[in-house]
Amino acid sequence: MAKVSVIGTGSWGIALATVLEKNGHEVTAWSAIEEEIRMLQRDREHKEKLPGVRLEDGIQLTANLGQAACGRDLLVLAVPSVFVRSTAKKLKPYVDGQTLIVNVAKGIEENTLMTLTDIISEEIPKARVAVLSGPSHAEEVGRGLPTTCVAGAKRKEDAEYVQNIFMNDVFRVYTSPDMLGVELGGALKNVIALAAGMADGVGYGDNTKAALITRGITEIGRLALAMGAKYETLSGLTGIGDLIVTCASMHSRNRRAGMLIGQGKTMEEAMEEVHMVVEGVYSAKAAMGLAEKYQVPMPIIEEVNRVLFAGEPVKEAVQGLMLRDKKAEHEKMWEDA
Q: Quick one: 207 exposed, middle or buried, by C-beta within 10 A (0-12, 13-18, 19+)?
């Protein structure tokens, strides 16, 4: 049995707390919002963010970060990506060299273009850091539906520790040394999911979505490889796997927000209606910044930015993609033919 604290009581944090409790660990869940903790202590359920998923009585709930973080074997950082840096700053006094922090949020910091684990390492240099990601909607994990993720870490023993802590008969975990690829796949697929939702919102069909998914993973992979990630990661669970589920599922807040934008709502109206953090909106500008930094063409990401931040109509964005210059699907194949 391990002592584990989940830092963040959104839908994903709660779902993972239930997995950890089922696995027999001593689990504490923390929120910065005292009212939210009182509600969870009273109802043992987050009726707004994850209805129908009960927090067992053995899961401790607190708004005291020191109480949650001190003396833990593992800290699961489950706050939205925009709060990772500020939360890491608050955690720093409670973390020693033995503490392993596993980040489960998905995003890239807009102003620095840093991955979330890099942010944690910068703010808490003595911490050991890992990432857990994959096609894993909280709504299904909380209900105990079969799910598979990847634990990424620089040290194999850290990845295997996360694997052992989380894995059970319905939550399978693989390991990977490619933390960068795992994080880029998780962050950038949210931007492509916005595009898929926009296409749904204006009434386009399965052909359009298939094109967005396949060309989307091409863009993600192109950037990831330029940054030093591995091809195998992007062709696996945290690349194409996470992209498929996020573009296709109604559980996806990014797809839902995209649909609302495709139906004519502004970005702000869509985010308000979804009632949860839409990570793809925050990652879109960062993705464009990375594309420019590494000189990688990312036309879908570029059009999503134009729709979100320049008011371009979705149909014009799609037409812009369709009327691009003629290309081979894989140019190198002609060179090798």
A: exposed
Q: Is the dihedral of CA 320, 110, 248, 257 positive or negative?
A: negative
* Interacting residues of 131 by C-beta distance below 8 A, sequence separation 6+: 102, 103, 104, 116, 117, 151, 152, 153, 179, 182, 183, 186
Residue 153 pairs with which residues in a beta bridge?
A: 130
**For 71, how many CA atoms within 13 A lie in the half-sphere containing its CB?**
6
Burial (CB count <10 Å: 0-12, 13-18, 19+), residue 329: exposed
Question: 226-256, pLDDT tens digit by residue?
Answer: 999 999 999 999 999 999 999 998 888 899 9
Say whether pLDDT at 326 is over 90: no
- Among 49, 106, 189, 285, the one annotated catalytic: 189
Q: At what angle do helices 299-310 and 314-322 cross, to 10 degrees?
A: 160
C-alpha gyration radius of the chain: 20
Query: Is the pLDDT at 336 greater than 90, yes or no?
Result: no
pLDDT for the residue 71: 92
pTM of the model: 0.94
| Complete edge-to-edge strand list for the sheet that includes strand 74-77 | 60-62, 26-30, 3-7, 74-77, 100-103, 128-133, 147-153, 171-176
The answer to whether 136 and 149 are in contact (CB under 8 A) is yes
Q: Does the active-site annotation cover 3?
A: no
At residue 324, the pLDDT reads 83
What does residue 18 show for φ and ψ, rounded to 5 degrees? -70, -35
